[in-house]
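Deliverable D2.4 — example input (structure tokens):
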């Protein structure tokens, strides 16, 4: 049965934390490093790794490991990315997809189909204690992910921004976060429920980032008593809506600004919800509140990293930070996460890999990495044999000065669209090859001039490359 996002929100997820304990029988004690994998939702690479936002804790993490500058998830958004991270296998092109209750009715939104070969299960069988902390509403609460939740020794979930708490919201709070354009776009109830779940504009300790990373500290302490451990911290913030405290917005915009904030963008073309007079000021404030949320999330990430240091675990722990996708903030006239506009603001994500021995500390790599590389990489660094089903590259080779298998391009998809990126070309199209877009990165790095009509030969070649690598014609669900 199809379930829309509105129905999911109306049903709500449980607001409190819940705990799942895995099977009580113990495996043989393992001898290997601890693992902390941090997944931050909707985090743009140019904010986490670039100048668009202040992220001192991510910067400190980058100084200890290798930063990958060209990382493109092979299948997006939220659920397909996490499936690829856990399984080490590609999820695109979402063949044989069907709708699942509790998940969005979008291609690729389906549970992990082989839990036994997930890297966390492999580590569990090898003797690692495993934990997962999240406010992701889908992995945390949907029924199709119940087996995954039960596979961990410890699973802590928070209802997060679309949790079950509901009640009156102060009029002043709604007035502050409901820009007239947001109200006209029909986002009032979404923003109201968000604030009802956590009105943290005056106290960031109530934010979703604070909740998740504080629980992650508790899980870290539990894992430290059962070493080696593998802990995943899956934070939904800075996913929109954005309602950061003024101390953070003042760092990116006019500190005296007291007007209404656009907490929730409307996905689509700017001109479809903003007048020409509104577009400039509203997009400016969208960028302010998003950057502020990124910085606030980084601040609470710091609590976890600080506790790792206090427990003297840094030199025996692998730390990986990654995101699932970014978000468009007006670039090329798009706002939100638009599956037909697969440009870097949406499809390029940060990735930092910190080896327990701190090899390659502070280095950077231009290797075309992807989310399905992480499982094999983590198992390699842990000294555990990966299952044969894993298809990603082993990025651990780069930490010791070796090269992983050559990868001349990155390809993948989002819903019913696909992309391919090489050194020269950025290509994207509907899975039926409708409305193709082609950009020559050598002369147009900003991806402004669509050359698809002028270079149909290149479009055909790149489309056929994706088709061949994906195993045949790409599915289209409509």
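Example output (designed residues):
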């Amino acid at each position: 049965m199809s379930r829309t996002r509105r129905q999911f929100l109306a049903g709500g997820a449980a607001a409190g934390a819940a705990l799942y304990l895995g099977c009580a029988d113990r495996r043989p004690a393992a001898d290997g490093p601890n693992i902390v994998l941090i997944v931050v939702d909707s985090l743009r690479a140019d904010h986490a790794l670039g100048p668009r936002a202040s992220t001192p804790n991510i910067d400190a993490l980058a100084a200890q490991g290798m930063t990958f500058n060209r990382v493109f998830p092979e299948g997006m958004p939220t659920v397909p990315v996490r499936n690829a991270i856990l399984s080490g296998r590609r999820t695109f092109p979402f063949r044989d997809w069907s709708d699942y209750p509790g998940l969005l009715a979008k291609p690729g939104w389906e549970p992990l189909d082989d839990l036994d070969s997930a890297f966390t299960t492999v580590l569990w069988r090898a003797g690692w204690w495993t934990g997962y902390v999240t406010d992701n509403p889908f992995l945390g609460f949907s029924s199709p992910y119940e087996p995954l939740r039960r596979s961990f020794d410890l699973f802590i979930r928070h209802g997060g921004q679309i949790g079950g708490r509901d009640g009156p919201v102060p009029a002043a709070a709604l007035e502050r976060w409901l820009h007239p354009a947001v109200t006209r776009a029909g986002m009032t109830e979404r923003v109201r429920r968000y604030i009802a779940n956590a009105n943290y504009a005056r106290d960031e300790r109530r934010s979703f980032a604070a909740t998740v990373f504080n629980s992650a500290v508790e899980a870290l302490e539990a894992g430290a008593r059962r070493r080696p451990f593998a802990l995943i911290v899956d934070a939904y913030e800075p996913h929109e809506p954005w309602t950061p405290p003024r101390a953070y917005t003042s760092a990116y915009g006019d500190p005296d600004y007291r007007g209404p904030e656009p907490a929730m963008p409307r996905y689509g073309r700017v001109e479809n919800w903003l007048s020409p007079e509104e577009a400039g000021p509203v997009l400016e404030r969208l960028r302010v509140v998003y950057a502020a949320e990124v910085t606030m999330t980084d601040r609470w990430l710091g609590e976890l990293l600080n506790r790792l240091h206090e427990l003297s675990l840094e030199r025996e722990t692998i730390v990986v930070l990654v995101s699932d996708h970014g978000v468009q903030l007006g670039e090329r006239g798009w706002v939100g996460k638009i599956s037909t506009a697969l440009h870097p603001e949406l499809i390029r994500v940060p990735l930092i890999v910190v080896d327990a021995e701190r090899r390659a500390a502070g280095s950077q790599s231009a290797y075309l990495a992807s989310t399905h590389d992480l499982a094999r990489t983590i198992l390699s660094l842990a000294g555990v044999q990966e299952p044969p089903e894993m298809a990603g590259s082993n990025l651990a080779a780069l930490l010791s000065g070796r090269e992983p298998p050559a990868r001349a391009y990155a390809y993948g998809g989002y819903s019913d669209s696909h992309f391919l990126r090489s050194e020269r070309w950025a290509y994207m199209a509907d899975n039926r090859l409708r409305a193709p877009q082609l950009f020559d990165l050598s002369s147009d790095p900003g991806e402004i001039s669509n050359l698809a009509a002028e270079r149909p030969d290149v479009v055909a070649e790149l489309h056929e490359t994706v088709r061949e690598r994906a195993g045949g014609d790409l599915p289209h669900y409509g």
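The longest strand covers residues 34-40.
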